[in-house]
Amino acid sequence: MDAYFAGMLLGLAMITPIGPQNIFLINQGFTFGVPRVFVAVVAAGVCDTVLISLGGAGTSAVLNRVPGIKSFLLAAGVVFLTYLAVKSFRSRPEDFDQSTPPEMRWRRVVAQCTSVTVFNPHAVLDVVGILGVAIAAQAPDHRPIFAAGTVSASWLWFTLLALGASTLRRWLTPQRRVWIDRGSGTLMLVFAALFLGELLRS
User: Fold this and answer.
1) Model confidence band, residue 129 (pLDDT cutoffs 50, 70, 90)
2) Where is the signal peptide (predicted)?
């Protein structure tokens, strides 16, 4: 069990810092609440499970040999995060009319969550690489247990994040939601700018 908890601690250390994926989940919790927010939780959890599994299988070494892969992911990340930011800035109080439940299109939620994850080069390259190395460093019989710990950390964090946002949802007026969306859009633009700067330097 030591390997499991070591993997969980490493997973939590890597997943808890604020990033596009966490911002997306918080917004889903604010918008839809429980139980519909769990569509986003499952989508994010599956994405991280796949990335961690790929890291454990040594995919990071393959990705590092593919020319232009990081530049492509950075460029895609800039475009997609800018799109999400513009969408957030265009929100209005009437978009959050609490008298009628917001419509959820689960395919769109899954697609957006997947894009936020896949078009984040740090998630694809850094997380896959770091966790891949950490998994490979374990004794062979401990590797599956360690990997299970890192996967559990992602699912636990995403669930807590969604539940926390859903709990706060009842105190959010439409006007507050607009300001939260603007704050979210600003953070998305910050990450887009960081990705763009990294792209120009590469």
Assistant:
1) confident
2) none
Radius of gyration for the alpha carbons in the chain, expressed in angstroms and rounded: 18
110: amino acid identity, one letter: V
Q: Which residues contact 126 (CB under 8 A, 6 or more apart)?
A: none
Between the CA of residue 122 and those of 94, 117, 125, 138, 166, what are the distances in Å?
A: 36, 9, 5, 23, 27
User: Domain coordinates of the chain in residue numbers?
Assistant: 2-201
pTM: 0.80
Distance CA 97, CA 172 (A): 11
What distance lies between CA 82 and its chain's CA centroid?
Answer: 16
Q: Are 47 and 117 in contact (CB under 8 A)?
A: yes
Distance of CA 186 to the CA centre of its chain: 17
Measure the CA–CA gap between 11 and 154, rounded to whole angstroms.
Answer: 7
> Which residue do the tokens 């390997």 mark?
3
173 vs 176: CA distance, rounded Å? 5
